[in-house]
Specification:
83% of the residues lie in helices and 0% in strands. The protein is an all-alpha fold. It is globular and about 55 Å long. It starts with a helix and ends in an 8-residue tail after the last helix.
Length: 464
C-alpha cells in the first residue's frame, strides 16, 4: 500500500471511529486518529455562533447587541462546563488506560449527574431572570424588548450546552473522538437548517426573528445531546452506560469536583483577562476596539484546529498514565506540540504577510483595517510559542493536574499581561499597539513557563 493510500485509510478510520488501543503501537498514528475528529469537532462548535450572528445581524443592532450580551452571560456557564469537562476527560481517560471500564462508567455517571444539577440551576435562574440580567449589563429599553425572549430561551436551554460539552468530554477521554465529532456535526446540521427558517420564516415555519435563532440553536444542540445519550447508553463505544450505573457515589463526585474547580478557575482567569484588555483598548476609541475585535475573532477561529490537537494530547496523556506509561505520555505531548507548532507557524506566516487582506474581508474602514492588521500581525508573532503552550496546558489537564495551569494563567495573564499591556500602551506611548505586543509577549511567556513546569514531571505523579 502506498503512503498516500495509508494516509487516506487512516483519515477514513479517524472519521469513522477506531478501536485502536492508544497506549500501544505507533504514537504518530494515535495522534492522527484522535486529532482529526477532534479538529473537526472544534470547527463545528464554532459554527453555532457564526450561523447565528450571520442571520441575526440582519435584524438590526439591538438584536446583534442582545446576542453579544447573552454570550457574555453564557461565559459563566461555559466556565462551569469547561471545568467539568477537563475533569471528566482526565478521569475517564485514566480509567480506560488502566483497563478499568467499570471505573470509567462510574466516573462518567458522576460527571453527568454534576452536569444535570448545574444545568437545572443555570436554566432555572437564567430563564426566570433574563430581563434583569440584561438590564444589569446595561441593556436599553429597545434591546430589552428585542432580546429578553432570546436570552430567556438560550439560558433556559443551558442544559444542552453543558451536556454537549460534558458528554463529548466522556467520549474524548475514552478515545471515541469520532462520536464526539458526529454529535457536533448533527447538532450543527439541525442548527443551520432551523435558524434561518425560524428567523426569516421560510416555508411553513413562523417568522420568529431573534427568538427563532435561540429556538433553532437550542433544538440543534438538543438533537446533538440526544445522539450523545443514545451513543452512551445504546452504542458500541468504549464507555457504555446502563441505568444501574446512574447512582450517586460520594467519593467519585468529590474527586471530580476537586479537579473541576481549579479547571473552572483556569478558564475563568483566561477569559476575564481578555475583558481587561478590552477595557484598556476601549480608551482609544471605536476604531481600535473594532479592529481588535475582528482580529481576535480571526485569531480564535484560526487556533480551533490546534485545540483539537491539544485535546488529543490530553487523551493520550490520561490513557498512558493509566496504563503506567508516563514516558509514552510525555513523548505524545512533545510530538503533538511539534505538529501544532508547524501548523500554527504556517498560519502565522500567512497572517503576517497578508494581515491587511484578511481584515478587509470583514471591514473596509481604513482606521479599523489599520488597527486590525497591527493586532493580527503582533499576535501572530507569538503563534509558535502559543502552539506548544496550549498542548502543554491540555496535557496537565489530561493528567488531572488542573491546578498548575491555573497558577500559570493567574501569574502570566493577570500579573504580567494586563500590567504589561497598560504600561506599553499608556506609559510607553504605544497606544493599542502596546496591548497587541503585550498579548504576544504574555502568550509566549505562558508557553515557556508551562514547558518548564511540564519538564519537572510532577504531573506524572498526579492521582486521579
Amino acid at each position: 500500500m502506498s503512503r498516500s493510500a495509508r494516509l487516506f485509510a487512516a483519515v477514513r478510520e479517524a472519521v469513522g471511529g477506531t478501536r485502536q488501543d492508544f497506549t500501544e503501537g505507533s504514537l504518530g498514528r494515535a495522534i492522527m486518529l484522535l486529532a482529526i475528529p477532534m479538529v473537526l469537532e472544534m470547527i463545528m462548535e464554532s459554527l453555532f455562533g457564526v450561523v447565528n450572528i450571520f442571520f441575526v445581524a440582519r435584524l438590526g443592532s439591538d438584536a446583534a447587541s442582545a446576542v453579544g450580551m447573552t454570550e457574555s452571560v453564557l461565559t459563566i456557564l461555559y466556565t462551569v462546563a469547561m471545568g467539568l469537562s477537563m475533569a471528566t476527560t482526565a478521569t475517564v481517560a485514566r480509567r480506560i488506560g488502566e483497563k478499568d471500564p467499570a471505573g470509567a462508567r462510574a466516573s462518567a455517571a458522576q460527571a453527568i449527574g454534576a452536569g444535570v444539577i448545574a444545568s437545572i440551576v443555570a436554566g432555572t435562574v437564567g430563564a426566570r431572570f433574563a430581563p434583569q440580567l440584561l438590564r444589569a449589563m446595561g441593556a436599553w429599553p429597545s434591546l430589552l424588548e428585542a432580546g429578553s425572549a432570546y436570552t430567556s430561551l438560550m439560558l433556559g436551554g443551558s442544559g444542552t450546552i453543558v451536556l454537549l460539552f460534558l458528554l463529548n468530554a466522556i467520549f474524548r477521554g475514552a478515545g471515541d473522538a469520532a462520536i464526539a465529532m458526529r454529535s457536533l456535526w448533527l447538532a450543527n446540521l439541525v442548527n443551520i437548517l432551523l435558524v434561518p427558517c425560524l428567523v426569516v420564516g421560510w416555508g411553513p415555519f413562523p417568522k420568529m426573528g431573534l427568538t427563532g435563532a435561540a429556538l433553532g440553536t437550542t433544538i440543534g444542540r438538543g438533537v446533538g445531546v440526544v445522539y450523545q445519550v443514545w451513543s452512551l447508553f445504546g452504542g458500541n463505544g468504549r464507555v457504555v452506560l446502563r441505568m444501574e450505573n446512574i447512582r450517586f457515589q460520594a467519593r467519585l463526585m468529590v474527586d471530580l469536583l476537586r479537579i473541576s474547580l481549579p479547571g473552572m478557575f483556569q478558564y475563568g482567569i483566561a477569559t476575564a483577562s481578555w475583558l481587561g484588555l478590552v477595557r484598556i483598548i476601549s480608551t482609544y476609541g471605536s476604531a481600535a476596539l473594532a479592529g481588535y475585535t475582528i482580529a481576535i475573532r480571526i485569531f480564535v477561529f484560526a487556533i480551533l484546529p490546534s485545540w483539537g490537537m491539544a485535546n488529543a494530547a490530553a487523551t493520550l496523556v490520561g490513557q498512558n498514565l493509566g496504563a503506567g506509561k508516563p514516558g509514552r505520555a510525555e513523548q505524545a505531548v512533545w510530538r503533538t506540540g511539534f505538529y501544532n507548532m508547524i501548523f500554527l507557524g504556517s498560519v502565522a506566516v500567512v497572517f503576517i504577510l497578508f494581515a491587511g487582506s484578511v481584515i478587509r474581508v470583514f471591514t473596509h474602514d481604513p482606521e479599523v483595517v489599520a488597527m486590525g492588521t497591527d493586532c493580527l500581525r503582533f499576535i501572530s508573532y507569538g503563534y509558535p510559542f502559543f502552539a506548544f503552550g496550549m498542548v502543554v496546558v491540555q496535557a496537565f489537564n489530561g493528567a488531572g493536574d488542573t491546578t498548575t495551569p491555573t497558577i500559570v494563567n493567574l501569574f502570566c495573564y493577570w500579573l504580567w499581561e494586563i500590567p504589561l499591556a497598560y504600561a506599553l500602551a499608556m506609559w510607553a506611548g504605544m497606544g493599542p499597539r502596546g496591548v497587541f505586543l503585550a498579548i504576544a509577549i504574555a502568550e509566549s511567556t505562558t508557553a515557556c513557563v508551562g514547558i518548564v513546569m511540564f519538564r519537572r514531571g510532577r504531573w506524572k505523579l498526579r492521582k486521579v
